[in-house]
Amino acid sequence: MYFRSCERQRANVKNKAELLANRYCSSEVCFSEIKDGILQCKCGENDAMSNKFEWKFVKEENTSDIVFSNENKDILFHPTYSHGTAVLRGEKPFAKNRHHYWEVKMISSLYGTDVMVGVGSANIRLADWKYQFCSLLGLDGQSWGYSYKGNIQHDQLGRKYGVKYGMGSLVGVHLDMWRGTLEYYVNRRPMGTAFRNLKRHEVYPMLSSTAAKSAVRITCAVSTEPTLQMYCLKVVVKKPALYREFKQEMPQIARIYEKKYFWIRPTIDIQTRALAVPKRQNKRERSDGLNFLTCEENLTSDSETEDVYGGLEATNRKKSDKNKRIRSLGLEDDCVFAIV
Ligand SMILES: [Zn+2]
């Protein structure tokens, strides 16, 4: 009995530590100003290009399980108590052949059966789940979801995917309707491709929650045409040395693209790490002329996030192995051109 209690305590401490690490807020002040269980800070809400909303969530008429406020940006699920799963869908489906990015900030504690962020078709009848507690998104072949517990689910198949998220986390959804892939971001860090083969589906943004008084704030809903610049920026930000070179050589261009594709921009700790590398090393890297070649490897890679922010080890390993690489000048030129 004693050991079980200790184990539970250790698990609780571990969960708490993990959740604390997954906040976007960098200041403890944010968490000292919680009002009625709702986070009051604006962290992550006023970044470049965010605060744009190409669509909004709509709720079913006559439902009291969901309350909108703050110009429909704040969504409160189960305002008094919970008796099942409340579900929300966006007002229109995602346009084909475009990149869509939308993001929600968790402004209350998350707990209970499930709180999920994802996409789903128009065939899901939202009211059917009113009296059932479930992990709704991904329960059938019509929806795809990411749980606050860190799992993803589609067609009743779930797997461990990314980090857990909770109060203070930013959860972004990057839906590439050109390729048909969906990737989540937590606090602007990519979690890797979660789902594929979405191209043939007509899907809407969706949220679901079983937790009483759980609340989220939508911080942006934008879309853009597919561009080589975007793909290249995505590759460049993964490599601190390459990112540093990009910032130093093309500061204006870097500013423009980082503003346009703000969710791809590395988080502050990665930027700091990139800037911390000595200048001499920087020169040597530039002279080897191989930096941009990594574009090809990464553009075609399926496991895009294996080394995402994993860091310098992966980059260094590749450098030591550089003689084995195949040079592809055509793509190198393309990538440089795309960035410029
Ligand atoms: Zn904050």
UniProtKB/TrEMBL annotation:
GO terms for cellular component: SCF ubiquitin ligase complex. CDD domains: SPRY_SOCS3 (cd12876). SUPFAM superfamilies: Concanavalin A-like lectins/glucanases (SSF49899). Keywords: Ubl conjugation pathway. Residues 34-225 form the B30.2/SPRY domain. GO terms for biological process: proteasome-mediated ubiquitin-dependent protein catabolic process. InterPro entries: B30.2/SPRY, B30.2/SPRY_sf, ConA-like_dom_sf, FBXO45-Fsn/SPSB_families, SPRY_dom, SPRY_SPSB3. This is B30.2/SPRY domain-containing protein. It comes from Brassicogethes aeneus.
